[in-house]
Amino acid sequence: MDLPGVNLPALFTPDTAIVVLGYGLTPEGEMRPELMARLYAGYVSALLSPAAPVIVTGGNPQNGVTEADAMADWLVDHGIDRARIHTETKANSTVQNAAFSAQLMDAIGAHAAILITSADHIARALNNFRAAGISVVATMTPDAAPLSAEPFGPVR
Fold it and tell me: Tell me, what's the pLDDT at 155?
């Protein structure tokens, strides 16, 4: 987003990816409330940063659905352009979330990340992402304020 004479902070540019970390799905392939809370924080970030790519990361398929695919479908269903969403469907751990997200960020030309996960997970995730060579310019957790398990309708 170019605005003449306005220098936007790194959080609002196409060079900064919004990275939402997955959380295990139910055996039926549905998102659990903790994942929905992370995803909602990613959704709000995507609305606030309309030029930023969104990476959803998480494998661990249940009933033929990966965490990343479930998150991507929900974001599209709630108005985020599919072209902005990049799915990383192989990760089975936070270390892999970081490593595979770093590869994806390199491929799409993103040089920094807004990292979104749960509060009890953020320190470890931040260390893993930094170890993978990712410049994390901001972190966000959904745990600061209570959220409904279904902020925009049924959990998918």
Answer: 43
From 156, 129, 154, 146, select the one nearest 20 (Cα to Cα): 129
Paired residues of 62 in beta bridges = 65
Amino acid at 41: A
Q: Where are the domains of the chain?
A: 23-80+93-144
Spell out the SS3 assignment of 109-149.
Answer: CCCEEEEECCCCCHHHHHHHHHHCCCEEEEEECHHHCCCCC
- What is the model's pTM? 0.85
How far apart (Å, rounded) are the C-alpha atoms in residues 21 and 129? 11
Question: What tokens does 89 get?
Answer: 């469907």
* Overall residue count recorded for the chain in this entry: 156
Low-confidence ranges of the chain (pLDDT < 50): 1-3, 6, 8, 145-156
